[in-house]
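Notebook B, p. 112. Complex prediction, attempt 2.
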Amino acid sequence: MQLARFHRLKPCYYRLEGTRCAKCQTTHFPPRQRCNQCGATELQSVRLSRRGRVAAVTSIHQPSSGFPKGSQLMAAIVDLEDGVRLIAQLTDVEPEETSVGMAVEMVVRRLRTDNGDGPILYAYKFRPVLKRT
Amino acid sequence: MREVYIIGIGQTPVEEHWDRPLRELGAAATLAAIRDAQIEAPQALFVGNMLSGATCGQENLGTVIADFAGFNGIEAMKIETACASGGAAVRAAYLAVASGAHDVVVAVGVEKLTDLAIEDTTGALAGAADADYEAAHGITFTALNALMMRLYIERYGVRKDDFATFVINAHNHARGNPNAMFRKPVTLEDYARSPMVAEPICILDSSPVADGAAAVVLCSADRARSLCDRPIRILGSSLATDTIGLASRREILRCEAIRRSAQLAYKQAGVTPKDIDFVEVHDAFSIVAALSLEASGFVKDGQAIPFALEGNIDIPGSLPCSTRGGLKARGHPVGASGVYQVVEAVEQLRGQAGDTQVKDCRLALTQSVGGLASVAVTHILGN
Amino acid sequence: MSGEVKLLRTHRPVGITSYGAYIPRFRVRTEVIGACWGVGPERIPVRSKSVPGPDEDTTTMSIEAGWTALERAAVPVEDIRAVWVGSESKPYAVKPTGTMVAEALGLSPYVNAADFEFACKAGSEAMQAAIGFVGSGMAPYAMAIGMDTAQSAPGDSLEFTAAAGGAAYLIGPAETAVCTIEASLSYVTDTADFFRNAHAHYPQHGRRFTGTPAYLAHSLGAARGMLDSLGRTAKDYQWAVFHQPVPKFVRGLAKKLGFTPEQIEPGFLAPYIGNTYSGSSLLGLAATLDRAAAGDRIFFTSYGSGAGSDSMSLIVTDRIREMRMKGPMVADYLARKREIRDYGVYLRHMNKIHTE
């Protein structure tokens, strides 16, 4: 990924920033310039909830190029507590430990490193909520 | 808008064309269609293709195909709507004639996918989805379809193995198509043993990566009358979109782009789903075949699998699907598939489908879908 | 050195306002490593060690530990004017980890961010700098992180202990602290007991030279300098935390200074997770703070090869209870375990298999 493109994505990738419509309060992710509910253009940058629940999950056996071999890559539809839905990798969990409805939380992890010596891409992923003893 | 007719079809076999470059495939299909239409040259050329840049380093594909097909100077452009690029090329060609801008045009779909290693093709195809928020995260195109399949199975309580019916059906119909990539039958046992790609989608759920080109000649009513004994009329043509990201949908399983596109086409053609004799759905994955039948109004939501299991999608059934193998068995050179669908529908409507002929067919629906049902092109054809 | 040593004291009183720990989920039993190299369990100093996940590194772990510290502190982010990461496993050889952590935590742009390196004491180095930064009045708060995904050569004895983890400390004014910092002391010489050349994949170590002349000499140098100058002994402290390369070194050092096994127990994590290098003494301190009560005195001495030690004398306040409930504790991370049972899978996690 080009350095400039990654740089633009950082507020989303590192901090899960979306937009909220000042008029109808709809929250969007990815961020938008125009509200897709009411059409307003007065939008504020907001940080999304970091917690949510899994709506569906899949294990990817044929990854795209550039993604590490061997580890089970999992993708899920996550419904955040603030009502925003997004799709992200799951991490820190085995396929047999996943279930629809499981509670997850956002973490920042390595996505990939281009060509082995390129920039390291970090982004949000979701893991089972850490249990507190 | 004027009436539009199809007077010629052409296609290459779908396979790994190690010896044939992109421009040759595109030109070959175009010239075959021109010959079939018995015309000298089109006035415009619309090239459907998704990945010529990524797989062959070639943009400006309209110019390339026009040049190498021997039509230097004509209006030509590349049309891209991901895996629906072929359908969109037909749509653009339709609009060119319907608007009166041209009288005789060609829509050709061409794609070359097999030069790249599979991981690189997977990466390139992921561009059909959201590049920054899905593809960049390593969430492959198959994985996104797998998530839809999971939601479907969860909501309707169907068994994963029941989806095999679409696959078995497609392979069965391909036996009659000499241009199809896979012509051997597939059994339920084959399906159950098939390795996973992105759970629960297995290899046999997924249409194969391949190379190929298909072309159609479209013309106005008076040209059709003078040039052709059995022109096929395009009664409905529409294209609709939805959000690019799967997570942005109001309700993922509704496939609004397919729904909207189908309704517009029915309205324009003045027909309903009941009037359609056979359908070429975008069966890139078995889940998309099921969702397409539902969103296009052929069956109620959640009823596609029982409908298929009852034999309705077979050729002697009430709504034959993928009558020449579909994307699954004929193959899916992505930007070309939408044109293959129209070519195949014309073969059926002309009565040229041999062993796998849909008897007495009058009306066909072809539907080309791109991304995660984020764009859909529907055509209704009649003889 | 005698009581003439001048301790490092700040202009205004400072302390630890909050902290956060991180240990990855994976563990490998060291006997699995030993089995490949013909080393029996009786010759291995720890039973199990922590292993980073394939998508983890010092940056990701620092972000999580830092986030916990932020959540527990509830201070305005604009008041945190530095984030310093000490590590010997920087993801980039040239490009600061601190900037990535600052961005992820929302601390940019009016912030200082840089990386520290001093082998295993890089984390306490960052703490020293933060103590000075805040203590001088330059800034209300500064964050210091010690974190590592320690690398070791296959077949080398370090492979049994080199582990992953660490902690983040938000240093601030004593009025907000869960633990005040009375004084600190650094004891440093140029002693090459363990190092990694720029082009080498793996570090080298001086075997027995790493013991008495290195770990012991510097730890004792800082610790005795601190105790003597304060006029105290081990008995004046409830708890003690030391750098933990192998359990034997820790027990030996504690004994020499007069600390009992009970005093070092809460912070003594090496037997379970191995040596987390720059994270080691900081994780030990976090685990100790997780158990400490108001009024407890904690004695802290780190060690880093190269070589040196930082000693600190700490007093726990009554804010500790409420603060530590607001986020995951070290015990929560210790409880979260996934065994790697295969040496090959362990090597893949550690990127020790060259595929090109």
